[in-house]
């Protein structure tokens, strides 16, 4: 397996093409991207749990899972959320222009948008640019990744190849997001592309599992967006059919590796962030508790600011575990470790060496491990610290 | 009714005495306070929902409701939470020293602590100072209010008098808190004192109602503390017995007014805050939805930073309403007003005059009203904006 990340290092699976251009909604940066599959692809999606769902979310959700998807069109700058009936019409126009340019049906085109909520779409700029965009799709995952960025500092692409049945399978992931929600732009988007052959139901269930362990375990500011979407497209062009249990397990693990790398890159690129925070809950009595406690620690502003300031205020961790409803009998026996330093165990402080903790927290990644000593379930969540810069970015933004 | 707030303006109900002193846990500031009722008082309490409850919370909770409470002892600087068995012993020592000084039983003394979580108590300093403190209780609600402060910038006291059955009844409220949780000190404490006569069960149910409309509707950073406690003490010394429905309603309204004034003063004094945010949810189909949506808006970092920056980014409000699970059919008809300017109605933008909104947001208090147009339930929540200073306070704190 060859993991790769970053611009100019990504390859697409066989039969997939991508491109990004500037259509004029934003001044200079690419703001419109397209992914095309030569052969109709099996596709699955997972979407925001918000009751306020953007027009492209409603469109894509209604189509998936599917077995005949040709393309995904995505714009950045305007979220097409809270835009009323005109928003639906604008999304239909974006999808129709893509279908026409690719000579396929509108039901074969998925859509996503990211940007300011509530602003009307500059749809004419988008539809006018689509024919040119469609004519120029090629092996440019990086340009697509740039076109979907909002407050992201870096484009996010990852790929992995693996050998199944003697053949090479590629999984390529592209994402954007400076958090579960963007202060101004409110979107996390993920695209997982592969040339393996799988059934729509299989794709949907695998994507749900993988998302629950990756994108659904990150947070920058605890908000859920109106536009969150993760797509999985599988076009079968590697000639590998996912049927045997062993192949399925190997592939799903690789897909999850790609998704976790992307998810971590989003958390690390959280607005104003200086550190990645990884929270590992181990030996929990059930998976739901493990996941909810892990996430709860990553959204606490008290923990996030303490890590930013490299302040060894570990009492805040206990406070948050109580708020996260860890049962009192577990609180009495659990242990808390930070950067491999045992801080708390069996209901009381386990170290007085706060200087060692302070030094450990200088690292770029801070790892907290909570051992609940009560079962076999584990969960890991990722977040970032909270700096003055987060406030500045979001306070100064003017629509 | 004569509301009063601020230092040197508070009076205590008949038969109540208070004082605050420095016992040496903190360098100069008062850090130990006591409230004494001449006659045994009826008392009720509401406490943090955290599963991690401080030793004084467990002690006070076990005693209440009660009809024979003589005193409340409170220290600041150390929270006595996550302190193991030693924490329970330390709390017992603090309570026993108070009972001895007042010549009453330990079961007549309530306790509260606020400060750093996990740090062992400097209990010897506290018990040594209690006899002197008990000997000097007088009409010094302000000194008590100062003694329980942590990161608070101002002491928080309010009183109200009302006439019932031809007699004067006083309600005095004292609180501390720079939020539902203090970054370092993790506590919100409230004390409601009155000279009316009421039954313990009546006191408990009234306190629960009042707290649900006041202290439980504020947030600074979305965290719940290990030490949150609100007490109601009623000693009957006004000679007024609360029995008739009309008197009960009048008294409860006055008690709620006091609690809301205190709650708002906590939100306004949130760490780093520059503005008070009031969120009014009106015409909701049920009370739980109204309350949860109101609170959800006050904890969103995106909304808090936008208000801090006076940035008219109202799309963030819709995003948060969706995350708060407002049903889609309500989202399609609700209206959003900020500073009396209609921003959004019937699923789309209602104004393009963002400059007027920007000017309105310059006020010291920003009021958001969400009209759900679907029922008769209302709820109001209070919070504060999020500034760089919040991050600085919490990042730089060193235990």
Question: What does this protein look like?
Answer:
- Two copies of one chain form a homodimer.
- In chain A, helix 2 packs parallel to helix 3 and helix 5 packs across helix 6.
- In chain A, a hairpin with a 2-residue loop joins strand 11 and strand 12.
- Chain A starts with a strand and ends with a helix.
- In chain A, strands 1, 2, 3, 4, 5, 6, 7, 8 and 9 form a nine-stranded mixed beta sheet that branches. A six-stranded mixed beta sheet of chain A has the order 13-12-11-14-10-15.
- The first copy, chain A, is 34% helix and 28% strand.
- With 399 residues, the first copy, chain A, is an alpha+beta fold.
- Chain A folds into two domains: 265 residues, L-amino peptidase D-ALA esterase/amidase; 121 residues, ArgJ beta chain, C-terminal domain (Ubiquitin-like (UB roll), Roll).
- The first copy, chain A, has twelve helices and 15 strands.
- The N terminus of chain A is likely disordered.
- The interface between A and B is large, with 70 and 70 residues.
